[in-house]
Structures are given as C-alpha cells and as structure tokens.
Write a structure and sequence with these properties.
The structure holds two protein chains of two kinds. Chain A is of the alpha/beta class. Chain A contains 17 helices and eleven strands. In chain A, a hairpin with a 6-residue loop joins strand 7 and strand 8. In chain B, a hairpin with a 5-residue loop joins strand 2 and strand 3. By secondary structure, chain B is an alpha+beta fold. Chain B is globular. The chains are: A alpha/beta, B alpha+beta.
C-alpha cells in the first residue's frame, strides 16, 4: 500500500499544488488543493488550479458519458451511506420527467465539518459538480441545500460564488447552464436526510417521509430528484476533468479515491483532512500533529457509528472492507477521539439524550424507544439502574431497530450499543458504584449548542 | 405472487386494531405500536390482512405485493 498522506486544510498552499496529471505520481490533496487560509476561493483562482469546467452533454441515445466515467471511477456517495453514485444518477436519468439536482451540504452530524469546509472555502468545486451532474441527468436546476444556522459570511460567500458564475456566463455568452439556487434547511440531525430535504423543499416539514416513492422517482415538485452530498459533487468536478483512471490512482480497489475526514478530539490540530481510502488511522492522527494525551477510543461514523477501543486502534486501516469486520465504517468521514480526561459512560448518556431529542417525533418506536434508552443509560451512569439494565437496553434496542421511517433510530442504537460494548468495564463500574470523578467533566463529545429542536417551518421562508 | 404487510410508522398512532385482526403476523410493543413479523402472508390470511388494513383508523397498515421473489 502507498504511504498515505494527509493535508491540513487551513495551511497556506504552495503555488503548484494543483491536482496531478496522469503522468505524475498520485498525490494529495485533490479536493483541498489550494484551499485559501481565509474566505472562499474565487472562480478565477478555482479555474486556474483545476482547469476549465468541461461540459457533460447528454447523448440523444445511450447513457451520459460522464455517468459512465463516474461508474468506472467507482465513486460512492460521501454523505454516509456510500451508495454508488453512477447507479443513482442512472436511475434519475432514466426516470420520467425533467430531473432536478440537490447538492446536499446540510451536514446534520455535529462532528462533521467537511461539507462546511467545502462550501465555505471551495464552493466552486461543489457548484461545478452540481452543474456537471445536472447536465449529465438532463436537469435544468441545481439547489444547494445548506443549514440555516450557517454564519452569515458563509451564506454571503455562497451567494457571491453563484453570482461569480452568473457573471462569467453572461460575459462569455456560454451555453445554457442549469440554474443555481441556494436553500436553507433547519438545523436538525435528520433534516439532511434525502426524503426530509425533499419534504422541506416541497413546502412540508424538514422531516423524513415514508418511502416509496424514492426521490429519484418522485422528489421535489414531483420531479425525479438527484440528491448528492456536497463532497460527492466535488469529486465529480475532478473526475470530469481528469478521468476515472486518475481517480482510481488513490484509494483501494473496493473504495477508490480520496475522501475528506473530520478529525476531532485530543490531537494537536483537529480539523478536516483529505486522505486516501486505505490510509491508516495512525497516519491520520500523525497528520494532525499526533495525540495530545491518552486516547480511550475512536468513534468512527459519528453518532450513528461505532467505537474502536484504544487497544484495537493500532493497525486500523480506514476503508470499509477493513472496518466492516470491526463493526464500523467511516460513514460521512467522521473520526472522533475520546481522551482519558472524559468519562465514556457520561459522554454516552449525554449523546444518547441528545439523539433521543433529535427524533422528529413522527414514529412511535423511535420517540418512545430512544427516550427509554436514554433514561436507562442515564440510570446506569448515575449508578441507580436496576440489575437488569443491560438486558433492558438490549430489549429496547431490538424494539427500535428498523422500525422508523428513516435510519435515525438504527444509528442511535448502533452508537449506544457500541459504547456499552467498547467501554463495558466502565459501564459495569458505574452501574455498581455510581458516577466517577471524570463524570463531572462531561462535554467532550461535540454537540450543537444550543441543542436545536425539530422545526416544521414551511419552505418559502427558507428560500434565499 | 406473495403478499406482506408493512406499517407506515409515521401515520401509525398505535390504535392496535391490526394486532387484533391479524394476530398471526402482528404483535404490539410495550407502547402499543405494531411489530410486523415480515413473513409472507399465506393465501388464507390475505383477506384478514386486507380487513385489518381497512380497519386501521389512520390507514397505516399496508398489504403489499412482493415486487420480486428474493433471489
């Protein structure tokens, strides 16, 4: 395996840090090449680094060449589910009606900052991808979906980026390009879920809906809707320029390419890093300046993910084929280290309560089950649980799993069960003796402050 | 052609009629929400399943055709 390399996004780039051509040794960064230390990269700088935007015309007959290229590249969605992007695009392309494209940068995962990094610093990479995807599936509109809690300067930067593209287009009298729009969605854990986005854009609450129909069949305004994560689109922007073979020069065969990872916890420089799939966990930590203290474990995939205990972290490789046997995955690229200053039991109780509060309240098993799970974990953490608490948690988990309209209850159960399995001695110690000294210092795992509540604001107010 | 029942968890309000009318495939959890066993419906129970679906006050019980046999 190639030695993995990572980069620190906020570092000033060298002048020649553009993506490599086929003839060069594959290097990183790709997406984060030339990332500005402050503010957003302007369109002319973006084009100077990555080259002009190729067009991705649709053929009269047969599949779009770009979709074929994305298929050969083996690109998988970077929003967490890892679905093959070309398969999704083909489904939208062949559905009945004029499609629409949603660029999903809602990023509800509190420990993830990668989509924010892209839309804040490299908006044209995401917009390029949106335009290319729209052309490939025959859509006339791209809606960039971002969280309403974004700071004003990020929203202004995005509006400016869209304006820059409009100006260049009218200056060059370019061919018809899809319309770009910006849309805000409520700050809520599941607001970025595909059916919740569609529901919100159709004037309903930003909550998941019962499927089918899936968005590719009938989505926004009943049109076939392609929903891609912001990072997925950024990769499309580079695949269209450099090709499938170039993309596959990094990563592993089952998971080609590079990916953005948000690393947080006790490291010298937490932040967003670009790694290739197959890089080791320790190389990622080294790239962030190393751990600044003892680490109890690594949570992969955020609050729908699973832990790797410290004793198993050595030799861990960041690719799904390696992580699956360990019962975890990178999800949307979240790696969260827990320091030995924190109490894993108290942290789990805190996050479990937050996850219960993030239920939209639509599905009975999720509302009741996650609340009961949070209660029981809190009782264990406080040392007031009854003897059968562990069995009760297992029974509740079984009652919650696969019984919601979306994957939120399943993800929350994953996180809670994995915490209990990974930190079993700590949990049984708390159950017997109550809170430990570290319990008072709870608050290391990041949660949005103040905790947002589910909102059901109708969509027009979210339009900008 | 085999059929299965499915619950729309969003519209379900735990009235529990389905478990009364189709106890062979539906039980209730501790909060009164239906747990569907997921097995295909035997032809003899198809009418009972349809009656259970019609009896649901929120139309949250669906009797669905299998799209394709699992291969």
């Amino acid at each position: 395996m190639r030695s993995p390399s990572t980069i620190e996004p906020r570092e000033a780039p060298s002048a020649d840090s553009g993506p490599p051509s086929l003839h060069q040794e594959p290097t990183l960064p790709r997406l984060l090449a030339g990332i500005p230390a402050q503010g957003a990269m302007h369109l002319h700088e973006h084009l100077a680094i990555h080259g002009e935007l190729p067009s991705s015309p649709r053929r009269r007959r047969g599949p779009s060449p770009l979709i074929e290229q994305i298929g050969r590249a083996g690109l998988r969605g970077r929003g967490g589910a890892g679905f093959p992007t070309a398969t999704k695009m083909r489904a939208v392309e062949s559905a009945k009606g004029r499609p629409i494209v949603l660029a999903n940068a809602a990023e509800g995962e509190p420990a993830s900052l990668k989509d924010l990094t892209l839309i804040h610093s490299l908006p044209h990479l995401v917009l390029d991808g949106g335009v290319l995807a729209a052309q490939a599936v025959g859509a006339d509109e791209v809606i960039l979906c971002v969280c309403e809690s974004l700071e004003a300067h990020v929203l202004d930067g995005l509006a400016r980026a869209i304006e820059e593209r409009r100006a260049m287009r009218s200056e060059r009298g370019a061919d018809r390009l899809p319309r770009l729009r910006l849309m805000t969605v409520p700050q809520h854990y599941v607001a970025g879920q595909e059916s919740a986005l569609v529901n919100h854009l159709n004037g309903g609450p930003a909550m998941p809906t019962f499927t089918p129909p899936l968005p590719f069949e009938r989505g926004v305004a009943r049109r076939p809707t392609l929903i891609n994560n912001a990072e997925t689109l950024a990769h499309i922007a580079l695949i269209a320029r450099h090709g499938a073979q170039w993309f596959r020069q990094l990563g592993v065969a089952a998971q080609p390419g590079s990916t953005l990872v948000t690393l947080s916890g006790p490291v010298a420089a937490p932040g967003v890093y670009e790694i290739e799939y197959g890089a080791s966990l320790s190389s990622l930590i080294d790239a962030a300046g190393g751990a600044t203290g003892r680490v109890l474990g690594a949570l992969l995939g955020g609050y729908a993910g699973s832990w790797i205990g410290a004793e198993h972290m050595h030799g861990v490789v960041l690719s799904d084929e390696h992580l699956a046997p360990l019962g975890t995955s990178l999800g949307a690229g979240v790696v969260l280290l827990l320091s030995d200053e924190a109490c894993p039991v108290a942290e789990t109780a805190r996050v479990a309560r937050w996850l219960a509060g993030q239920s939209t309240g639509q599905c009975g098993p999720c509302v009741n089950g996650l609340a009961a799970l949070a209660d029981t974990v809190e009782e264990v953490a406080g040392g007031v649980a009854q003897d059968e608490a562990t069995r009760r948690i297992a029974a509740l988990a079984a009652l919650v799993r696969r019984r919601g309209a979306c994957a939120h209850p399943d993800g929350a159960v994953n996180f809670i069960l994995s915490s209990i399995a990974t930190f079993a001695p700590e949990f049984s110690d708390h159950a017997r003796h109550g809170p430990c000294d570290a319990c008072a210092r709870t608050g290391e795992l990041p949660l949005p402050v103040p905790p947002p509540r589910p909102t059901s604001r109708p969509t027009p107010a979210g339009l900008r | 052609m085999s059929h299965r029942v499915r619950v729309n968890p969003i519209t379900c309000e735990a009235h529990g009629m389905c478990a009364e009318l189709l106890p062979e495939h539906i039980t209730l959890d501790m909060w009164g929400y239906p747990i569907v066993d997921g097995r295909p419906l035997p032809p003899a129970l198809l009418d009972h399943a349809r009656r259970a679906a019609q009896a649901c006050p929120t139309f949250a019980l669906l009797v669905e055709r299998e799209p394709k046999p699992r291969g």
